[in-house]
Amino acid sequence: MDYKVLYRKYRPLTFDDVTGQGAVVKTLKNAIMQQKISHAYIFTGPRGTGKTSLAKIFARSINCENCQDGNPCMTCEMCKSFNDNPDIIEIDAASNNGVDEIRELINNIKLAPSNSKYKVYIIDEVHMLSQSAFNALLLTLEEPPAHVVFILATTDIQNVPITILSRTQRFDFTRISPSDIEKRLAYVCEQENIKITSEALSEIAYLAEGGLRDALSILDQLASQTVDEITIDTVLNTFGTISTAKIAEFINTIENNDIQGMLEILQEFKNSSIDSKVFINKLLNALKDLAFDIKTSKVEEKNLTFEDIKKLILELNDTLSNKLMSVDPYILIEMIVLSYMGKQETPDILEKTAEYFPGNSEEDKKTPEKVINEPKKEEKNTVNDTKLEEFKKIRINNCLAAAQKSFLIDLKNKWQEFIKFIKTVDNNIYLNICDTNLIVSSDCYFIIETITDSSAGLINISTEKIEEYFNKQYNLKYKIIAVNSDEWNIIKKQYINDLNNHIKYEIKEEVPLYIENKEDIENIAGDIFDKNKIEIVKE
Questions:
Q1: In a designed cystine with 71, which of 14, 200, 409, 439 is the match (CB 3.0 to 4.6 A)?
Q2: 34/155 same-domain check
């Protein structure tokens, strides 16, 4: 088989060929030129950033008969026979991680090089060695024979004992920048006569996550897939990723309060089997750029303010980092994004919302316009953050004041049963509570835990409706409140501290979560005019 994969064919052979590791290259070249060769080095960094390649270049250079500015000459006998040189020993610690293998290595170290100046041991993935193997290596690593050089490579420096690190010179490899990866890919494409668009190059560089080897592997796969030009669509369809333009379109739907458009794009991503992590990562980057543009006055704030973007980024990041997620991630993304939309609701937007979250009756589902146009008997205003926080604080206090484990045991199973029940009754509520747990209960209050802050917020402004369903189902009279996981950790710690200090929790009178329109109008008008000179007329 004559074909050689691209990442092997274009592996750098000299320091000048190395991409994106300028600081490491400069230090190693200077060490060679000044003849200050250490007995042990450790190269650490992400995969595909050049650790093993630089180890081989360094090994070739220190044995080169005619080294030029730190680079191997590539013409002497040592350089030509490097791949077959018995004095360059590569060891994969992942499969040779026992103490017996290390003892055999130590015995061979004593033998002088057969035809080289230095015998070089390159131990890849060194963090995979067992503790006994590390212990066996310690003394030899500290005082090896003068003709031996160790180069250890690892992607997980935290798992290498400090006793090993203290005996080596450490070099940290960084992720290669997308621009550097693009330049190298463009060079390879030119050499291989591969036709590719600049957008496709950029997307490959993004997918590689700073690893040039991964980028070359992706390019190799795409090149073997098509004989025509590699376009951005080729990359997106092959690797299930998302274009920057599509992400910008998604953010635009949020800024324009286009709920239906947002839902359609999310559904498109989901139907395309695009990994939610890929989508969230790209969305986070785009939101970060938007926040930066707002702060530097390159763009004006629209529906999404800088503070909104900051909160949205944090909530999406919580979803991304939650490894134990049991609910469809796209449902959480929908709910998080929806909480930042519809701030200035119009009949059009309300209609779209009604279509997505239809009522329980068939009549409501068929005629959402009727629901929109008919005024409600008890219409209430949107809850402000201050009132919601006060409402939540009092309910948590009241629950903890009379909390008992027996109540929790009795209600925990009921809550899980209720989640299954509500799915058949009200899909809107189900989406809010489907991934919650009941964590504390008293005789008339209980607290539920959510994954994200936005989920807790959506539940807390809907407590009245949830309580109505729950209490009717089990013939109880409970009041509920929701907190996210981070909040609960803080509350729990404070509660335990208060118990230790003999601080008792007393039941407090609740504040109303909503204020009726009439009272709210009077308050607003009173802030502007003299209260003695205004009159609110009842209709």
A1: 14
A2: yes
Residues 161 and 145 in one domain: yes
Look up the CATH number of the domain holding residue 206: 1.10.8.60
The 10s digit of each residue's pLDDT in 243-290 is 777 888 888 888 888 888 888 888 888 777 677 777 888 888 888 888
Percent of the chain with pLDDT over 70: 85
Residue 185's alpha-carbon distances to 86, 177, 196, in angstroms, are: 33, 12, 10
What is the overall mean pLDDT for the chain? 80
E-only strand ranges, 61-178 = 88-92, 119-124, 148-154, 169-172
Same domain, 316 and 228: no
Domain shared by 317 and 418, yes or no: no
Number of domains in the chain: 4
| Both tokens assigned to 519 | 């009272």
| Domain span holding position 336 | 244-342
Judged against a pLDDT cut of 80, whether residue 320 lies above it is answered with: no
Do 442 and 493 share a domain, yes or no?
Answer: yes
Q: How confident is the model at residue 441, as a pLDDT?
A: 92
Q: Pick from 208, 174, 206, 201: which is nearest to 187 by CA?
A: 201
> Does the model's pTM come out above 0.70?
no
CA neighbor of 206 nearest in space, from 182, 223, 237:
182
**Do 173 and 21 contact (CB within 8 A), yes or no?**
yes
In a domain, 531, yes or no: no
Task: Give the C-alpha separation, 332 to 451, whole Å.
Answer: 9
Rounded CA-CA distance 158/169 in Å is: 16
Question: What single string gives the DSSP state of each residue in 461-506?
Answer: TTHHHHHHHHHHHHT---EEEEEEHHHHHHHHHHHHHHHHTTPPP-
Residues 317 and 430 in one domain: no
